[in-house]
């Protein structure tokens, strides 16, 4: 059996509609060789979406472009940490240009593989979103570089945004009253305390909302994974049924050939019987009365 990394690469490099059949064949071959661990590892591979396949094509066939993307992302993060405005604007422009070029390259690779895709609307927006997310999140970037992405990624913001410093306005007028410093200080303290209580309440509300939405997100992700596994299982069954159908058709063809051969043999035997019977009749007719 070929090298496992090369086999997995080949699975994720081919269009998604052939993934399940290819995986099933690889699993069957691993089982035939007695490598149960390999068969289990292969069976666990998830089918990529079309958008993920396009990104995988880019990572597997043009890894240098992904390397450029990651390098630019690191430069952007450093510029953001240093708040280098001019450099940040320049790098942001480069980011848009690089992402756009990579999206075009992924589309070109797909069409080179299958010219019929030129007439198909490919999910290039999802490809762009994934590459943008890879620039913002090192973890996503590593998934992209692996060439084994199974679904597109998204990112709401970009990069490390510095947290602004909040300053509380603690006086109602333009300047504190100079003749009552103690009174003003107490007033400011009360305002700070009230503002702190208000912010604490807001924080509690935000934390509860975060926990609720996180729970909903986790359930949705679990449901999505389960649905994906169900589809994979159905596609595996379909692939197996297609294989059995092919075997049955081949067997039917063999049976037809055997039946036709038997018909020819039976016809020849009947002719031979007829010939022998005719010869016997002729012989009987020639006997003297």
UniProtKB/TrEMBL annotation:
Residues 175-201, 208-274 have a biased composition (Basic and acidic residues). It comes from the Bacteria. Residues 278-289 have a biased composition (Acidic residues). Residues 169-289 are annotated as: Disordered. This is Nucleotide exchange factor GrpE.
């Amino acid at each position: 059996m070929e090298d496992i990394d090369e086999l997995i690469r080949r699975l994720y490099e081919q269009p998604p509609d052939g993934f399940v059949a290819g995986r099933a064949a690889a699993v069957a071959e691993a089982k035939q060789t007695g490598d149960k661990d390999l068969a289990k590892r292969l069976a666990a591979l998830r089918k990529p979406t079309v958008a993920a396949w396009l990104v995988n094509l880019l990572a597997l066939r043009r890894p240098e472009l992904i390397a450029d993307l990651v390098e630019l992302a690191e430069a952007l993060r450093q510029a953001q940490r240093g708040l280098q405005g001019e450099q940040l604007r320049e790098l942001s422009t480069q980011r848009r240009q690089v992402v756009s070029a990579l999206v075009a390259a992924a589309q070109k690779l797909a069409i080179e593989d299958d010219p019929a895709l030129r007439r198909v609307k490919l999910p290039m927006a999802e490809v762009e979103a994934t590459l943008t997310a890879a620039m913002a999140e090192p973890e996503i970037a590593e998934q992209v570089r692996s060439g084994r992405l199974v679904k597109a990624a998204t990112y709401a913001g970009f990069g490390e945004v510095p947290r602004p410093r909040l300053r509380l306005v603690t006086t109602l007028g333009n300047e504190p009253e100079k003749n009552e410093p103690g009174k003003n200080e107490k007033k400011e303290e009360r305002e700070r305390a009230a503002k702190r209580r208000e912010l604490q309440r807001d924080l509690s509300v935000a934390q509860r909302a975060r926990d609720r939405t996180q729970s909903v997100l986790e359930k949705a992700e679990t449901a999505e994974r389960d649905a994906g596994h169900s589809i994979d299982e159905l596609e595996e069954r379909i692939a197996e049924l297609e294989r059995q159908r092919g075997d049955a058709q081949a067997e039917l063809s063999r049976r037809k050939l055997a039946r036709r051969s038997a018909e020819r043999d039976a016809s020849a035997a009947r002719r031979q019987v007829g010939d022998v019977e005719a010869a016997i009749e002729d012989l009987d007719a020639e006997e003297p009365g």
